[in-house]
Amino acid sequence: MLDTLHIRNYALINELEIQFDKGLNMITGETGAGKSIIMGALSLILGNRAEGKHFFDPTKKCVIEGEFKIGSYQLLRFFEENDLDYADHTIIRREISPDGKSRAFINDSPVTLAILKALGEQLIDVHSQHATLQINTEDFQFLVVDSVAGSFGLKQSYRESFFAYKKAKKELEEFKDLVKKAAIEQDYFQFQFDELDAARLVADEQGQLEVQQRQLENAEDIKRALTGASHLLENEDTAVLSRLKETMSQVEGIASFLPEAADLATRLKSTWIELKDVAAELSSLEEDTQIDEGTLLEINERLSLLYSLQKKHHVDSVDELIKLRDDLESKLFAINSSDEQLERLEKEVVAKLAIAQKNAKELSAARRKVLEMIAKDAQATLSNVGMPNARLQINLEPLKEGDMRESGMDSIQFLFSANKGQALQSIHKVASGGELSRVMLAIKSLVAKTSALPTIIFDEIDTGISGEVALRVGEVMESLAENMQVIAISHLPQIAAKGAAHYKVYKEDKANRTISNIVRLDQEGRVKEIAQMLSGTNPTDAALEHAELLLKG
């Protein structure tokens, strides 16, 4: 239940706090006093989007906070699934900054509006006079039936199987299109694959060939340079090795006289050995370097093929050509094995369709079991609120053979007649505004009892009713409040008098501002408020007496 609502810096409200009763809470006040503002603030913590900027002080942020007692509503799983800290006394907060940015919190953990809305739908059902428009929609009518039937689990199972069937069917159709298209392109795919396969592509081949190509193209220069370097080291009169060996002998000759020369002689010897190895390797490389025009021609032809294939297929490397070849091979394999794949997908569609149809039939059966009970219960409530001749009939008809949709395999229609001799028709065609409000009250009452919502809010659904009918509507709300929290905004004294707690919304002028405020009325205040609702600002003694009688019930 909603325990406390705290509003700060919203519209005409600077700051106020409302502590609600667990039973029937009545909210009254003159038109424009701020009742809709309070409902607007409440809607923000239920996940609705903030429409525009509504700040009492545009330089400060707006904060709406609701404290809920949720210990008996089996919501632990919801908190676990959304990684939220659970508490029997849960606080929901919404903050809107002056720049329009909005943040939402559940027990101080930031959440998205989607999560906030999902929790709000499990805590409060808001019914306004405009909600009567919902009654003629299939979504709402199925919601009513499923709530009473307790078939939300069946509905969820059906929806999952229905979407699984739709997905499988889509995959089958897409595969058929792919096979059809692939069959047309098969010859082209095969030609491309054969060409790439015949090329016997090898990863990194191109780089190695390009290195070989450069070596063969410059073989003469390489041999000339290697020969020249080798001669400079050891094959001429002034060869480096000969001179170095002579230098080494000169230094070794004085090593016995000059100790420092011994180390230099050792270093010269190491250098001589290293250079001799270099000379040998230069000579070996020169011998291995061949001027091979035949090999160069083969390499040029191979590279030309690789370059041509890359240009043709708009890629930049042999690796990409290999990937293209493998992709073509996969496509050809898929085409050649499409019959087996097609058969598998068709079997999968048939199997998923069977599951969806089974779930749809179970859902339909559960719905049919409660249709008569819903009609009778609604008619009983309507009789209590001044419509003794009202009739409600719910038609649940199967769709065309094999047809299914997200809601199941049935269509639904609520038919209504308010008077004797009047034919049953769609509700919106035959019911007046006041009748629609009472029909909606009857249906909402039944849904509220079966779905066990913590709180239901009736926002001015007393449109078009008065007198004894209003008294009966108040009794229905009072009956509902025995099992759940009910918050009702009303302009009718007969309904207001039924509340266990009564709050008055009013405006007051302070300095240069008009402020909306709310106060919980004591018994004397309630008598005065209801008397004013009966006869005006200055109630007569008769109105005061009448108010006392209404409060005594």
TrEMBL record:
Residues 3-510 form the RecF/RecN/SMC N-terminal domain. One of its GO terms (molecular function) is ATP binding. One of its GO terms (cellular component) is bacterial nucleoid. SUPFAM superfamilies: P-loop containing nucleoside triphosphate hydrolases. Gene3D superfamilies: P-loop containing nucleotide triphosphate hydrolases. It holds the Pfam family SMC_N. Keywords: ATP-binding, Coiled coil, DNA damage, DNA repair, Nucleotide-binding. Residues 165-236 form a coiled coil. One of its GO terms (biological process) is SOS response. May be involved in recombinational repair of damaged DNA. Belongs to the RecN family. This is DNA repair protein RecN. The gene is recN.
